[in-house]
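Researcher: Sequence recovery benchmark, item below. Answer with residues only.
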């Protein structure tokens, strides 16, 4: 990870971008809702404010690695000791009586023992850190005052928590009843078939009288955090050890001890470099911590500051963004122009997806915004066609470790060409549309396949559709690197990614394609969810993209046997529908239409499928040939189209086996619709 981030640091340095270095002990809390607790001059809480996840994440803390966190604290145990069975009963009671939630919660806590298994009193390390701030800036007065009020020992800690428990029950915070219950009695988490009591409610401590004119800044504010970081300064002293840095050819004062662990968007607290101290290799080589990867103190401060600059909130979509991984969670993507990292171009969004405004639909966003990015890259002064764009994706492997799971470098020419070719490839398909239900109070809209973002490709492949697409199950998604190989790769790399993704989409979306195409022929897709319909639209575009990446264009494949076999089966379905409605006078169609019944056979053996169709179609063909009248016009049209395709197929040798590309063409033929049908 440090190698990749050092390149970012060097790029910013060369471009003259000044990033403010921070002390590595000043961090941002995790993103989780909690409470801001005000402490009075007696060291007891007298006020409680609810803070949502975004508000809490904008605050700050000082900590030494994972320890000595202040003034942000997460209790390891709930305030009251309650057995598992009683907790389960308490939550049932809370759900059953919502009229008086505070009274119900009070009753749950009655008679419970106070938990003495935790101590939040301030540590010596924290005292020393805050004492160094005394007198440095007038805005720090509130923090130093909080330091003097905070519990100094276990007894004072217990008194604070007992008072807090009573305060929580008195305050009118009924909208966050579950959060209050978790703080007081905990909640149940199952791990390896065992039930564990956990308490994950963050508390941020402040002065109860913070509005006093004496205090320029309150402790619970981002401004106080910035002030603390600035006045603590960076660690320049290290331990006086001189040595050769991994990045430089001359001896420098080296960083000693653990590497910084900044809190990053999406993945949270992340050590820039970490190794398990119990690993056997440490005993073999006799090195641990920063000795494994020596780097100067100046460089590690610069690397950390550059990373914090890159993931600042205002740069979301430009230099960073969340990207889904194969486990339905999110990783952190970082990207920047190596020669001009400060440029405000929405690069990160091109690699994931653009944020959608209220007036926009997600289906219409990517193609339009991606074109804007391409135009911006072309118009930037000082950039050449071979200027580099660096991309790395960081994933949280476990609570203590993060890793770079993808790292690549692309030229601007490669990115512009890839985006434009991606948009062209998404149109490498026949016409198809489906009715999408609108939001509550809005009309349904007819939607055609759209250009998907790389993120939508990943999400599309995270389900295995079953029962003709009426149901689905979760499956591991495709790895991000395979999507980027399809999106940005060239030659063999792109070709292999296309083959792999094509195989997956046929397997996972095949039943949905067949089911919804059959339902569409019957003019009744009401059994399919909005998600299923959107997935079909995305899936058709992905099929179009992978076929073009494999060198198969619609101008050619729409004339080939595989596509027309699919079209023939779709027209057979249309003829079957007309027969049932006009000849049999049936309002309810059969559960499976004639063409749909042989689709799965067609995907493996088109010749056999058409032989089966020929056996079944005779009565419908005879009926459509004889009937006359305007009401039979559509049936006549289906019959005419089938005749034209049959004449075409006579001139083409029908395959008895198929590969994945042919299966995709058969599906696209079956899904294809003409304006005449609509």
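Model:
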């Amino acid at each position: 990870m440090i190698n990749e981030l050092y390149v970012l640091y060097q790029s910013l340095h060369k471009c003259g971008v000044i990033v403010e270095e921070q002390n590595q002990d000043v961090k941002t809390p995790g993103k989780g809702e909690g409470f801001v607790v005000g402490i009075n001059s007696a060291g007891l809480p007298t006020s409680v404010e609810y803070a949502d996840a975004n508000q809490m994440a904008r605050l700050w803390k000082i900590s030494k690695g994972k320890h000595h966190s202040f003034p942000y604290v997460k209790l390891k145990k709930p305030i009251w000791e309650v057995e598992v069975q009683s907790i389960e009963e308490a939550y049932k009671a809370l759900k059953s009586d919502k009229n008086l939630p505070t009274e119900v919660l009070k009753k749950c806590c009655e008679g419970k023992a106070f938990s003495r298994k935790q101590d939040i009193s301030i540590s010596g390390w924290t005292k020393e850190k805050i004492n160094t701030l005394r007198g440095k800036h007038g805005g720090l007065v509130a923090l130093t005052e909080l330091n003097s009020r905070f519990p100094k020992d276990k007894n004072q800690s217990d008194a604070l928590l007992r008072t807090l428990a009573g305060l929580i029950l008195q305050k009118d915070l009924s909208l966050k009843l579950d959060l209050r219950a978790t703080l007081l009695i905990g909640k149940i988490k199952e791990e390896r078939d065992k039930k564990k009591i956990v308490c994950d409610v963050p508390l941020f401590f402040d002065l109860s009288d913070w509005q006093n004119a004496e205090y320029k800044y309150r402790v619970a504010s981002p401004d106080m955090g910035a002030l603390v970081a600035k006045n603590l300064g960076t660690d320049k002293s290290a331990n006086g050890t001189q040595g050769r840095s991994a990045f430089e050819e001359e001896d420098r004062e080296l960083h000693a001890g653990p590497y910084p662990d900044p809190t990053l968007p999406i993945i949270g607290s992340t050590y820039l470099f970490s190794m398990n101290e119990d690993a056997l290799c440490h005993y073999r080589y006799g090195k641990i911590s920063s000795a494994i990867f020596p780097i100067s103190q100046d460089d590690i401060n610069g690397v950390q500051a550059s990373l914090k600059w890159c993931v600042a909130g205002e740069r979301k979509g430009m230099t960073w963004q969340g990207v889904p991984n194969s486990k339905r969670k999110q990783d952190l993507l970082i990207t920047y122009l190596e020669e001009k990292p400060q440029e405000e171009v929405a690069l990160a969004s091109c690699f994931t997806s653009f944020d959608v405004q209220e007036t926009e639909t997600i289906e219409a966003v990517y193609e339009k915004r991606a074109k804007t990015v391409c135009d911006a890259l072309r118009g930037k002064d000082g950039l050449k066609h071979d200027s580099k764009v660096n991309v790395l994706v960081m994933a949280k492997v476990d609570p203590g470790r993060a890793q770079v799971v993808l790292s690549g470098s692309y030229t601007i020419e490669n990115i512009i060409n890839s985006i434009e070719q991606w948009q062209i490839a998404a149109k490498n398909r026949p016409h198809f549309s489906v009715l999408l239900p609108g939001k509550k109070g809005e009309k349904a809209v007819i939607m055609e396949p759209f250009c998907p973002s790389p993120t939508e490709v990943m999400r599309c492949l995270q389900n295995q559709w079953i029962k003709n697409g009426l149901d689905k199950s979760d499956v591991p998604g495709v790895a991000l690197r395979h999507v980027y190989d399809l999106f940005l790769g060239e030659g063999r790399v792109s070709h292999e990614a296309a083959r792999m993704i094509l195989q997956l989409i046929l397997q996972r979306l095949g039943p949905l394609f067949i089911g919804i195409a059959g339902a569409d022929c019957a003019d009744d897709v009401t059994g399919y969810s909005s998600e299923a319909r959107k997935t079909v639209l995305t899936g058709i575009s992905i099929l179009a993209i992978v076929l073009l990446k494999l060198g198969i264009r619609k101008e050619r494949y729409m004339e080939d046997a595989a596509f027309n076999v699919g079209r023939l089966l779709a027209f057979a379905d249309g003829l079957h529908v007309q027969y049932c409605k006009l000849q049999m006078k049936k309002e309810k169609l059969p559960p499976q239409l004639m063409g749909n019944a042989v689709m799965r056979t067609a995907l493996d053996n088109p010749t056999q499928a058409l032989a089966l169709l020929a056996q079944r179609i005779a009565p419908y063909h005879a009926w459509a040939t004889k009937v006359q009248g305007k009401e039979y016009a559509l049936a006549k049209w289906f019959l005419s189209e089938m005749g034209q395709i049959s004449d075409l197929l006579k001139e083409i040798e029908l395959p008895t086996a198929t590969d994945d590309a042919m299966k995709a063409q058969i599906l696209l033929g079956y899904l294809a619709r003409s304006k005449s049908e609509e």
